[in-house]
Every structure is written in C-alpha cells, then in structure tokens.
Specification:
The protein is an alpha+beta fold. The chain contains ten helices and eleven strands. Helix 1 crosses helix 2, helix 2 crosses helix 3 and helix 9 packs antiparallel against helix 10. The protein is globular, with a radius of gyration of 19 Å. 51% of the residues are buried.
C-alpha cells in the first residue's frame, strides 16, 4: 500500500473478513476475523474510474462502474448530497479474503468504499449511518455489521431499519477456517433453503443462538459445544459442501468447541479456546476429512478482530 500516489482526496482503509450465522444465528449473527482486505481510495472530480487489484480473486474484480466498491462510494455520495462533486475514483485493493467462500469478501468491498469515502468527506456519517447504507447495498446486515463494528454482532431488522449490538466475547477464541478449493455462490446457497421450516427447528435454533450469546458474554465455555448447532440452513446446504458432516465431526473430535458453515460457504469454521492450544490439531483433522472426500483445502487460523474497519491513512485535506 505504500506505493500508492498521495492525494488530498485519498484515504486507505483496512477491512476485516467476516463469518456470518455462527451456526444457529442464521442471518443475524456475525463476527469479524483477523484476515483483512485493504482499499486505497482517491475520489476524482473527473468522470474516470481506475481499478487496480492484487491478491485473492484479483482477476475477477470488475474494473468499471460495476465495481462494488465504486457502487458503495456512489451511494454514500448520494446520501450526503455530493454525488455531482465527485464523478470518478481511483480504487486500489489488496485482497487477502478468499472470494465466494463465506468470509465476507463482498462486505469488505462495500464497507471499505463507504468508510474510505466517508473519511475523505470529513466523516458526515457515524458507524450506524454507514451500517444503514451497507445493509441496503448488501441486502442483509450479518456480514457488514461485524466488518464495521468488529467483534461479534447481533443484528435485527425492524421495519426496514437495522439495529446492531456488538460485543467482545469473554472467552478468547481461536477460529480455524478450512477453505476448500471450490467457490460457492450465495445465490445457490440460498436457493436450496426451504421457504418454511418446522416449529421444532425454529425452537431448536432460538435456544442455540440464545445459548451461544449468553455463553460468550459470560465466558461460560462449557455451554458452547451445543450452542453452534443449527437446523435452519446447514442441513440443506451440506449437499453443496462435500464431507461437511465429517469435517464437523473431525473438528469436534480434535477438541473444537463447535463448528459451522462460514456464511453461505464453502468455508467451514471451527471454534476453540485459545488456551487449549488445539488449533493446529483441529486444522489438520478438518483438512484430512476434506481430502478424504476428494476436496483440496487450506486452513486459516484466525482470531476475533476487535475493531472492525479502520482508517490506516487519513485524508490530509
């Protein structure tokens, strides 16, 4: 990022990848992780869009007006009444978050654009204002909320408005993410879900999601092994991720407190207490099960990000 040209209408932001759902918290729970995408944004008065990308999925990043970061920038400019002032941008990204794997890559693009543009314009919006726009663009808050606030987030949609509660768990967690070699689109992962679910499954998830939040907030590690289970989306999505059930079982047998699909997949994420020192053992067990099902994969061992999106170079205007 150090080689990017200086400009008074420029800001550089670091945005964490995220994991949504956390098992039972379908479309409402999320967490920020310590894998980051970087955005260097310069707003231009000229009608010109320049996009330069490096890292994960760089070859697939749209280069023109379809660029998701540019769309987020435009939405913020419209919101604050400055759409006619800045007609273009130089967008430079360094991406570490895998694309279409359930780690919030699209959210990093949206949140990065909003946070960087907001900084350049003198921060007319607070974090809640940015969350409103990010949710509007993304369609749901479970990934964009932790990308903005950091930590774990619980989000509620109420009459079209989003409210988010963010917190840091009292248990220091290690996140073991098995990243399979194949992508999985959110659209396909949504398509396999039923329109209606049995009452018993709804109750199952309400109890687990409630237990998960209570255990994390109070530091009650002994309740976590049942808290990540899910009945609303994972049973239907397991056919899209070969070996999912066995990967979960292997993670738990190796000492994980729980395991879940990360977002819509294809990544699978396991959770363990940092003090256990079991993260490498869990990672090896997960990768072996993927291998047993003919799927190549790599492991990421991450922590919970505490801060959310951060400006790492401020507008010098």
């Amino acid at each position: 990022m150090k080689n990017f040209t200086d400009n008074k209408n420029r800001a550089v932001v670091r945005v964490p990848g995220t994991s949504a759902n956390c098992g039972a918290g379908f479309d409402c729970l999320g967490l920020a992780t310590t894998i980051y995408n970087y955005l260097d944004l310069t707003l231009l008065r000229a009608n010109k869009i320049v996009v330069e990308s490096a890292g994960e999925g760089a070859e697939n990043i749209p280069r023109g007006k379809r660029n998701l970061t540019w769309q987020a920038v435009q939405r913020l400019l419209k919101e604050v009444g400055r759409l006619d002032e800045f007609k273009g941008a130089i967008i430079k990204t360094k991406n570490n978050v895998p694309i279409s794997r359930g780690l919030g890559s699209s959210s990093t693009a949206i949140v990065g654009g909003l946070v960087a543009a907001n900084e350049i314009l003198g921060s007319p919006l607070d974090k809640n204002g940015l969350l409103k726009l990010a949710t509007e663009i993304e369609g749901h808050p479970d990934n964009v909320a932790p990308a903005i606030f950091g930590g774990f987030t619980v989000s509620v949609m109420d009459k079209g408005a989003v409210q988010t509660f963010s917190f840091l768990p009292r248990i220091k967690l290690k996140l073991i993410v098995a990243v399979p070699e194949f992508e999985l689109s959110t659209r396909l992962a949504r398509k396999v879900l039923p329109k209606n679910v049995p009452m018993r499954d709804a109750i199952f998830n309400i109890s687990r999601a409630s237990m998960l939040i209570a255990a994390l907030v109070e530091g009650r590690e002994e309740f976590l092994p049942v808290a990540f289970d899910d009945a609303l989306h994972q049973p239907y999505r397991k056919k899209l991720v070969p070996g999912m059930t066995e990967v979960f079982q292997a993670a738990k047998s190796a000492g994980a407190l729980g395991a879940a699909i990360s977002g819509a997949g294809s990544c699978l994420i396991a959770f363990t207490a940092a003090k256990s020192g079991l993260e490498n053992k869990i990672a090896s067990a997960m990768l072996q099960q993927f291998k047993n099902h003919g799927v190549g994969a790599k492991a990421l061992i991450l922590n919970v990000d505490k801060h959310g999106a951060q400006i790492i170079r401020r507008n010098s205007k």
